[in-house]
Amino acid sequence: MIIPKKVLLTISIVLFSFTSYSLGRTIPISKYHLKISKENLRVVEVNASFEVQESYLEMRPWGFPPEIERGWAKFVDIKSVTDSKGEPINFVWNDELEKWKLDISKNSLINLNYQVELSHDKYNWDAGGGIDGRPTVWKDNTIFWVSSALIVFSEGHNNQKAEITFDVPKDWKVSTAWVKLSNRKFVSNSIDELINNLIMIGHHEERLIKHDNMSITIATPSNFKHRIDLIEQSLEKVLPAYKNIFGELPTANYLVCASKNTIQDGEAYTNSFHQMFIDKDLEYNKMVWANTLAHEMFHYWNGTNFIFSDDYAGNYWFSEGFTNYYSSLTLLRTGIINEEEYLRFLAFQFSKLHYSQINSNEKTSLIEAGKSKINNWHFIYGGGTSIAFILDVQIRSNTKGRKSLDDFMKVLYSKYGKLYKSISIEIQIEELNHLTNSNFKSFYNDYIIGKDSLLDAIVKACDKAGLAISHYQSEFYLTPKKDKPDSIYQSIITPTRYID
Ligand SMILES: [Zn+2]
User: Fold this and answer.
1) Which of 77, 83, 326, 459 is the most exposed place for a label (fewest CB within 10 A)?
2) pTM for this model (two decimals)
3) What stretch or stretches form a coiled coil here (predicted)?
């Protein structure tokens, strides 16, 4: 969207009067000016001005392999720090704190000049979360940045707004997850949004889709632009379905970066995600790539922005498992996949859970398993998805079909998520009990907090839902019972209550 100059001016004035308040004090908007030239795509010159609330400068402390000393700061060369009068300020890197210590008092305005070198792609990023989160320059000269690699900031008031301006060649595009004021100027609404998002710059393809007040930009490097229609069509179906689950779409800007690779993977950020595709037979393997797309998109609500727990690792079974349950179910509800594919997926989740429960030497609970997500991958994803299925069946059964897991998600979003309140296990139990007028405490105690095998609960839920389940060791097979056309399973897969 091109904004007429007059409107832009009004927006700018409004934005510049946006300030953050801390103890009654007005904090000015932070500013970042990023310059990249055609001559060297791997260097970004940054000029920034902001108020430091503590006398430190830092970068996001995660998202890189632990063996890289200083993390993101390794690739940053600070040229100068000056105060509001232009006087130089001394700065020194502190190894223990992993921050730059500034020789300045708190709440001072500073001007900062630094250079970031994009050489992250020389490193193996497996231990940093995979290459979907690693800055790189693709073959078509499109530059992929994670904002945490670019932004040096000062921790403080999280609602601190920032204006980010790009000085790049005229014929380049800039795609970000931030509010767009012009093709080169953007605004982020919090430190989190500023440092935990994606940016694509260069000659890539861009597509904008809008639903209510949610704007989604899809950005693909040129070697994958022939797939942008397919991605757009999938998101056009998925978004209204998510609106049905949560009751509304939030007012937000979102960026989907889709790239071609030899592996498939995805990584979600505050309001963006990057998905890597193997560009082969995409029409036939939607269960894999469309599920990842729907999964990462669902994380915008669950796990990343709204529905979360202060016990981040202890909540993986919910943030990953329920996301997995809903992404696959949404693909079926919207006709992107068929029932056979869906049931194969669900049966596979039961298998992953059961296999990990019978094969681990030491039993662990779903909550504890989150502490070692990589080692307990199958248990967390398979277990969380199985719990979501069992609860969906149980809620529908206890309320005689009046309520479902969708209603539970709606309550979590509207009562807690929208207010950015952490959701504990106790809150989950309380809300489930309230929703269904029954008691889920022992279910949580046995299967989520405790270490009981979920096998019997899965079999019972399938029976109750009208799904025939057979299993041999860790192989599971699911078939809808023909004599139960009005079964709970049928009500789960049919989206009945549309909100308009
Ligand atoms: Zn996930």
Assistant:
1) 77
2) 0.86
3) none
Q: Are strands 25-27 and 173-176 parallel, antiparallel or unpaired?
A: unpaired
Secondary structure class of 193 (helix, strand, coil): helix
Q: What is the CA radius of gyration of the chain?
A: 24
**Sheet strands (E) in 232-379:** 252-260, 265-268, 272-277
Give the integer Cα–Cα distance in Å for 289 and 277: 7
Q: Measured in angstroms, how far is the CA atom of residue 487 from the centroid of ligand 1?
A: 30
Q: What distances in angstroms separate CA 332 from CA 111, 129, 241, 342, one per listed residue?
A: 52, 29, 11, 6
Residue 292 Cα to ligand 1 midpoint, Å, equals 8
* Cα 302 to ligand 1 centre (Å): 9
Q: What tokens does 299 get?
A: 């994380």
Burial status of residue 490 (CB atoms within 10 A of its CB: 0-12, 13-18, 19 or more): middle
Ligand 1 centroid to residue 6 C-alpha, Å? 42
Residue with tokens 């055609």: 38
Q: Domain extents for the chain? A: 313-493
Pairing of strands 30-37, 162-167: parallel
Tell me the CA end-to-end span of the chain in Å, nearest whole number: 26
Quote the CA–CA distance of 300 and 307 in Å, as a whole number.
Answer: 9
Residues in the chain with pLDDT < 70?
Answer: 1-25, 496-500
Phi and psi of 300, rounded to 5°? -55, -35
Distance separating alpha carbons of residues 383 and 364, to the nearest angstrom = 12
